[in-house]
């Protein structure tokens, strides 16, 4: 099958890694895969995948129409069977490209969005794939009757296993794009309220909040304890050597970094979010999102007891191969329905 994925960029983030792993797995299964984006550092990890650069990240109707015409032309020439959009602007582009080419399109919903005109294309998709049950509940509420199957993000095998930190320092770890909704500022404030102890926090990731987070760290006198390392393409190596993984997101469709930490057996403190509860076996140990005092207490308890009190069910997390097979089944259903409607 010939499939074309559209996403804003192939830079750092859960959507990008989802597409990276899905595209590579589909290619390994023998499918023809094209990824359209504005480019990015993760592009180098695509294997056997066609790469097309277009300004599909820009929220400009004229630019989006230009991209739609280009993608429609590619879809006709390459005999593409499915257009697969990730994020809102790509959804508009996929919708228009589908109208121009006659190729059906679907979207994967990775996050919660405001209920506004930006969601109009999702009503036109053949189906909406949701990466968590909480997202399924959200989108099926907006679009009653719309098919919203759940396919959890699949992960490749980790080359590392969790061993924990060596020495007397308790090493906490945060991994994620540095945006406000990831909760890093809450985490930094929480550490400023933690009683003195031998601890450190490593922050892996880039993003628009990087400078503000570093300024806050210095203003709180934590620059000798909190370290910013920027983007890292091997976060599993850090997870294997940390004492505790921290997931302070304020909202989340389904966090890939959380899923990776759970799959590796890393002790984890996480926000009490609907998607997180889907993987949790003891929701009482989850922490109220955005509550600095609650996070300070949870971190302090770990420093005292060496345990999080939280439990997670790693068996719910599929492999990337299982994810890809589930997605292909949906592709087949959409293709068969399209062929039937043509007849």
UniProtKB/TrEMBL annotation:
Domain Glycosyltransferase subfamily 4-like N-terminal: from-to ranges: 13-156
The keyword Transferase is assigned to this record: yes
Top EC class, one word: transferase
Membrane spanning stretches: none
SUPFAM superfamilies registered for this protein in UniProt: UDP-Glycosyltransferase/glycogen phosphorylase
Gene3D superfamilies, sorted: Glycogen Phosphorylase B
GO molecular-function term, one example from the UniProt record: glycosyltransferase activity
Keyword Glycosyltransferase: yes
Alphabetized Pfam families for the sequence: Glyco_trans_1_4 (PF13692), Glyco_transf_4 (PF13439)
EC number assigned by the record: 2.4.1.-
Keywords per UniProt: Glycosyltransferase, Transferase
Listed name of the protein: N-acetyl-alpha-D-glucosaminyl L-malate synthase
């Amino acid at each position: 099958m010939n499939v074309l994925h559209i996403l804003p960029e192939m830079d750092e983030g859960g959507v990008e890694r989802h597409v990276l792993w899905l595209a590579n797995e589909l290619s390994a299964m023998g499918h023809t895969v094209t990824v359209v984006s504005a480019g990015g550092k993760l592009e180098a990890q695509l294997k056997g995948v066609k790469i097309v650069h277009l300004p599909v990240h820009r929220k400009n109707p004229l630019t989006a129409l230009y991209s739609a015409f280009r993608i429609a032309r590619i879809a006709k020439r390459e005999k593409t069977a499915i257009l697969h959009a990730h994020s809102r602007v790509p959804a508009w582009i996929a919708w228009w490209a589908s109208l121009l080419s006659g190729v059906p399109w679907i979207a994967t919903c990775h996050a919660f969005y405001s209920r506004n005109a930006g969601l109009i294309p999702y009503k036109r998709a053949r189906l909406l794939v949701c990466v968590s049950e909480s997202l399924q509940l959200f989108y099926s509420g907006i679009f009653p009757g719309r098919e919203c199957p759940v396919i959890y993000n699949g992960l490749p095998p980790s080359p590392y296993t969790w061993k924990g930190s060596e020495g007397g320092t308790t090493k906490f770890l945060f991994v994620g794009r540095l945006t406000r909704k990831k909760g890093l500022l809450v985490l930094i404030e929480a550490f400023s309220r933690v009683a003195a102890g031998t601890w450190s926090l490593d922050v892996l990731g880039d993003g628009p909040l990087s400078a503000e987070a570093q300024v806050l760290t210095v203003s709180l006198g934590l620059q000798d304890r909190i370290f910013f390392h920027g983007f890292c393409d091997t976060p599993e190596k850090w997870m294997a050597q940390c004492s505790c993984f921290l997931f302070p997101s304020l909202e989340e469709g389904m966090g890939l970094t959380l899923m990776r930490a759970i799959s590796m057996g890393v002790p984890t403190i996480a926000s009490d979010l609907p998607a997180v509860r889907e993987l949790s076996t003891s929701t009482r140990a989850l922490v109220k999102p955005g509550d600095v005092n609650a996070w300070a207490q949870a971190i302090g308890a770990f420093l005292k007891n060496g345990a999080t009190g939280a439990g997670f069910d790693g068996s719910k997390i599929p492999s990337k191969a299982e994810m890809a097979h589930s997605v292909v089944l949906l592709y087949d259903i959409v293709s068969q329905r399209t062929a039937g409607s043509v007849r």
